[in-house]
């Protein structure tokens, strides 16, 4: 407080625009790019999920070698709602390392043999789990934009008559920083919210054809012409890609300053797509919680350093 003025601390705010099981779009306001990027990086690489980490092949007479199949199994997304509560296998003191531990691992079995002339598709739906809460993601729960859904599962291998695959797999908790198979996000992006200002007086000096030419210079549908007033209006500011094409076009037309476009440095638009292991909304909440834990750890470490420095100063003064 200074001279009777009170300073209020502003906290970041989130406003949800669109949300589905596997997709979320939201605004992050009243913060800066460092916080936005920290949130993005935590969502990609530090929110834990469960993925197959160890594969024991018993029989494999398919055309794919053991390592190839193990790699494909690791990349199958598994439902990971309880991943935050699970232990990392490296920190678990309740298991003996064989994978049979309810606190840090989940067992899967696969038994498939082709006995017909028709090719047999072995998919993620053929994996038998020891924990009903951790299963391969059922993509019929995540319909595509056209409303269609895929309930066939992810193909692991195709078997011809007489070929067989038998294996045991262990799924463990991990984070994307250790391996991409543990990343819960298909993609996470953010952009600065654009602040667009049209110089109305200068725009009125253009003919209708010039306005159309200027509007069409934008590679995305940011501007349009109102059919009634014939004025240029902003129809979708978020479609602007910071390509500066409309600014260059205005300069080429001898109208510099026709439009001014600035990124709002305290407002960001996030797009989050989940792999299906956890819902997109839960992915954001988990990332915020992890980011809070990291900030608390930094604050506690700083307090400890300050306490040590104060103690050293006191000892020095007593010694003096």
From TrEMBL:
Residues 23-301 form the DNA-directed RNA polymerase RpoA/D/Rpb3-type domain. It is found in: Nucleus. The keyword Cell inner membrane does not apply. Keywords: Acetylation, DNA-directed RNA polymerase, Nucleus, Transcription. It holds the Pfam family RNA_pol_L. GO terms for biological process: transcription by RNA polymerase II. InterPro entries: DNA-dir_RNA_pol_30-40kDasu_CS, DNA-dir_RNA_pol_insert, DNA-dir_RNA_pol_RpoA/D/Rpb3, RBP11-like, RNAP_Rpo3/Rpb3/RPAC1, RNApol_insert_sf, Rpo3/RPB3_RNA_Pol_subunit. The keyword NADP does not apply. One of its GO terms (cellular component) is RNA polymerase V complex. One of its GO terms (molecular function) is DNA binding. Belongs to the archaeal Rpo3/eukaryotic RPB3 RNA polymerase subunit family. This is DNA-directed RNA polymerase RpoA/D/Rpb3-type domain-containing protein.
